[in-house]
Here is the input.
Amino acid sequence: MARYILQRLLLLIPTLLGVLTIVFFMTALSPGDPARVMLGERANAQQLEQLREDLGLNKPLGEQYLIYLKRTLRLDFGRSIRTGRSVMEEIREHFPATIELALVSMFLATFFGIVIGVLSAVKQNTWLDYSAMIGALTGVSMPVFWLGLVLIMIFSVGLGWFPTGGRMEVRLFFEPITRFYLLDSLIILIRDGDPAYLKSSLQHIILPAVALGTIPIAIIARTTRSSMLETLRQDYVKTARAAGIHERRVIFRYALKNALLPVVTVIGLQFGLLLAGAILTETIFAWPGIGRWIYSAITARDYPAVQAGVIIVSAFFVGINVVVDILYSVINPKIRLR
Here is the structure.
């Protein structure tokens, strides 16, 4: 197992190097002058040349690339053009919000997706199966931005059950402990006995989590159904049923465990893709995460922030794939022997 994990981790090196190379050349060869963007249109030629020298923009492209790699390995992404703050500091500030939103969305998607998929497979060709698949098809078809606006109109503006955006009520300001508001609110509840923070953080995260998790729920449900139907037709399942084993045990002990391999793949990929979908969701719900931060950086042509944001999200996505590979080997030990 340790050898298999080491092999997976070593494969990260060329993958991440490829990501770094693509990000660098796409940014370096894109139209526009970063120095002009930083200093504005009123900057004179001397100021522009001095800034290019400070940033290494006047050096050959190959030398710029090597400097870029060295700085990236040190997690030194420079300073944001928009705010003047350290890019890494801003990432530490915004990324926990996106991770928290993605985790809650993926929890909802995994739980409801697997449950719906299993029920649909067990009750194949019944009204429950047809309803579940129509719902899954509808979920895949709804754009995130449209669904987000509909949820706000119904549950925030219409019914007033949830806030329209943000992570916490302004009046409940507190100094973040971990920057994961649900966890921080739980700590406050245990420490001070005040449930207001936990209630507010839950109310704020529900709508964006539902909007972000709808498409993954549909995809996981369809994948689970397909995999379960194939597994339920296997001889060992038929043998277990013929031996008089309880149907519930046959489904969850024998069928579901072996049907999980493709489902785990889909869950891992969808979790990584949630970060891409988070840009729209975070913008609609004013969620202060990395997606909204990258969107603001792109519109402002903030090159250091865009580079850093893409690298961090890509590294996270690649890391999720490694975790999926390791989970594969846990579910099916035969994979380690290949």
Q: What stands out?
A: The mean pLDDT is 80. The chain is about 75% helix and 0% strand.
